[in-house]
Amino acid sequence: MKLVGIPAYNEEKTIGDIVKKSLKHSDRVIVVDDGSTDNTADIAKQSGATVISHKKNQGYGASVITLFDRAREENADILTIIDGDGQHDPEQIPLLVDTLQENNVDVVIGSRFLESNSTTPGYRKRGIKIITSAANFGSDFKVSDAQSGFRSYSKKAISSIHPTETGMSVSTEILLKISNKGLSIAEVPITVSYNGETSSEHPIPHGISVLLNTLKFVSVKHPLPFYGFPGIVLVIVGSVLGYQFLDAYLNKQAIFIGSLMATIVLFLLGAILCVTAVILFSMATLIREKS
Fold it and tell me: Any alpha helices (H) in 35-75, and if so which ranges?
């Protein structure tokens, strides 16, 4: 069974057209109405979709979680997730699904950056590139668009991936889980429309939030470079400052309490980071050995 899943929040202007076009390329369309206050749910039903409604707005990631849970319940062979705001073209669903089947990969991502004629606004492109670089650092593969919400998943991927993030950072969380599970991945070029209002969130705080959450996931997978190396540097700097303070004290030279406090803070912070790195590295190793 081929399912198309559409996370939707107040998308009454576009959801009907998206559902109708998606039905041409799937056995069933499931819309997760994430606490909309408009007619999104009713229009989606009238257009032929199965609608799952959240009582209140929980976030894009919560809708993705619901779609994965439903796909497992339906024993779906393929789950394609597409945005409900009109950014993605449902007519390109076969492009992802055919790539998934013909190349026998587990996940296919529709990337807006594989072709040079991308219409993505400059500020958005730069932000996505930064987030993508962070996600690639934590993965065993490289992608060009870590924030794309247009993706197809195989049965194996559906059963293996269990997202937990309720916000927009679910996209990068899924990428890191694909890497952790050893799933295969491919990208295909897609077109994206930025006509009209396609996001209800301000791009700067939204981008910072996604980047911080991405770094959180990456730091857990790679604790040594994220915590260990900075910790060692701080310990060394603190030790050098401590030696200089002690030498000045023993030789009855002028000493500054501020330098002593800086020494203590740097050394303790470095030690905490080093211990954190060791603990996270040990936990990650144990999890990998048991999985």
Answer: 40-46, 60-73
The pLDDT of residue 278 is 80
Q: What is the pLDDT of residues 136-183, one digit of tens each?
A: 776 778 899 988 999 999 999 999 999 998 888 899 889 989 988 899
Q: Which of 221, 244, 267 is a domain's end point?
A: 221
| Section 20-37 average pLDDT | 96
In 3D space, the residue among 229, 231, 228 whose CA is nearest the CA of residue 267 turns out to be: 231
For residue 48, give its domain range. Answer: 2-221
Query: Following DSSP, what letter does each residue of 105-174 receive, concatenated?
Result: -SEEEEESSSSTT----HHHHHHHHHHHHHHHHTSSS--S-TT---EEEEHHHHHH------STTHHHHH
- 131 within 8 A of 207, measured Cβ to Cβ: yes
pTM reported for the whole predicted model: 0.75
pLDDT at 110 over 70: yes
Q: What is the pLDDT of residue 291?
A: 47
Q: Rounded mean pLDDT of 258-281?
A: 83
* Cα 269 to Cα 121, 227, 236, 266, distances in angstroms: 40, 10, 11, 5
Q: Count of domains in the chain?
A: 2
The count of C-alpha atoms lying within 13 angstroms of the C-alpha of 289, restricted to the half-sphere facing its C-beta, is 6
- Give helix 170-180 / helix 60-73 axis angle, nearest 10°: 50
Point out the domain boundary residue: 167, 187, 221.
Answer: 221
CB-based contacts of 81, cutoff 8 Å, min separation 6:
4, 5, 6, 7, 64, 67, 149, 150, 151, 152, 153
Rg of the chain over Cα atoms, rounded to whole angstroms, equals: 24
Tokens standing for residue 181: 């599970």
